[in-house]
């Protein structure tokens, strides 16, 4: 298995809803990442997990709450989002260390109404 | 993180080679050079990476200048499916550093 699987592919949520994005990989990668991408812009890093521990939080608002329950799974819990949070949310994984490439999922397209 | 500079856009004709340049004049000795591409409505896709020597794989070739201050991604024969945004990214070997994307080059392939 050489893929990162993200679910759901599309999500529409109200500003008072709570929802979760899920990411799964079975490549034995021990680093996992969440990125946010607005239209016509490059992906922006949100969180980095290394060996299931949060190692980087790029000053992301607390309405985004990441979780890494095991080495294969990464979740992003969403609560009280704003319309400007509408974006493509990308998950990626890699071996630790700079000599390895990242594998990205195809993303979850989130719309906050 | 050291910065990269890429042209905003490039055009190529189908079935011709494409040379995508990247300048990284502040690169450190421990930075790997990574290339990714993003097709419309998809997540980024790993293309190739290298440290000092030129690299080849089934997708592309990476030519790294001797002083490492620039590199070129070479697509040997462009197809319409190669139309994408191409990102050149430096990644430090010092730790499990994240990938930080710049603005990239939008490649248009003309039939």
Q: Would you write up a description of this structure?
A:
The complex is a heterodimer of chains A (113) and B (111). Chain A is mostly beta strands. Chain A has strands at residues 4-7, 10-13, 18-25, 31-37, 44-50, 53-57, 64-70, 73-79, 87-94, 103-104, 108-112. In chain A, strands 2, 4, 5, 6, 9, 10 and 11 form a seven-stranded mixed β-sheet that branches. Chain A has a four-stranded antiparallel β-sheet with strand order 1-3-8-7, with no helix packed on it. Chain B is mostly beta strands and 111 residues long. In chain B, 0% of the residues lie in helices and 47% in strands. The A-B interface holds A 4, 31, 33, 42-45, 48, 50, 55-56, 90, 92, 96-99, 101-107 and B 30-32, 34, 36, 42-46, 49, 51, 85, 87, 91-94, 96-104.
Nearest-integer average pLDDT of chain A: 94
Taken from the alpha-carbon principal axes, the silhouette of chain B is globular
Radius of gyration of chain B: 13 Å
Low-confidence stretches of chain A: none
Q: Quaternary status of these chains?
A: heterodimer
How many helices of chain A?
A: 0
């Amino acid at each position: 298995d050489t893929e990162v699987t993200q679910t759901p592919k599309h999500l529409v949520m109200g500003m008072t809803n709570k929802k979760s994005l899920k990411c799964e990989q079975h490549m034995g990668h021990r680093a996992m990442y969440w990125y946010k991408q607005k239209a016509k812009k490059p992906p922006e890093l949100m969180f980095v997990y290394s060996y299931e521990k949060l190692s980087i939080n790029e000053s992301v608002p607390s309405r985004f709450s990441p979780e890494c329950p095991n080495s294969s799974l990464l979740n992003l819990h969403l609560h009280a989002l704003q319309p400007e949070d509408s974006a493509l949310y990308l998950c990626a994984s890699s071996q630790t260390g700079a000599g390895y490439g990242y594998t990205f999922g195809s993303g979850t397209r989130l719309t906050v109404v | 993180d050291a910065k990269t500079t890429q042209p905003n856009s490039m055009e190529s004709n189908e079935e011709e080679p494409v040379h995508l340049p990247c300048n990284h004049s502040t690169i450190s000795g421990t930075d790997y050079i990574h290339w990714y591409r993003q097709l419309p409505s998809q997540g980024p896709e790993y293309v190739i990476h290298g440290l000092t020597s030129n690299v080849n794989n089934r997708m592309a070739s990476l030519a790294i200048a001797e002083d490492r201050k620039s590199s070129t991604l070479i697509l040997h024969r462009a197809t319409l499916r190669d139309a994408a945004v191409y990102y050149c990214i430096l990644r430090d070997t010092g730790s499990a550093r994240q990938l930080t994307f710049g603005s990239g080059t939008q490649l248009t392939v003309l039939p």
